[in-house]
Write a structure and sequence with these properties.
It is built from two helices and no strands. It is an all-alpha fold. The protein has one domain.
């Protein structure tokens, strides 16, 4: 896979958008079950952070030349 700036920017953008969708859905589900805004914010932020690190690790593994 090419390692130029446009490709890297596209990968980062897709990771951030996917993690945002995961975090938003986790926040909505938490809000629907508890009606506590702080719990919903923490659930959304935690799932965003976790999915961002997981997706960046997966992208790094896939795009490495020796993988």
């Amino acid at each position: 896979m090419p390692n130029d700036t446009v490709t890297r920017l596209l990968l980062v953008t897709s990771v951030i958008l996917t993690a945002s969708l995961i975090g938003t859905n986790a926040g909505w589900m938490s809000w629907a079950t508890s009606h506590n805004p702080w719990v919903a914010i923490c659930a959304g932020a935690g799932s965003f952070a976790g999915s961002t690190s997981l997706l960046f690790t997966v992208v790094n593994f896939i795009t490495k030349r020796d993988a």
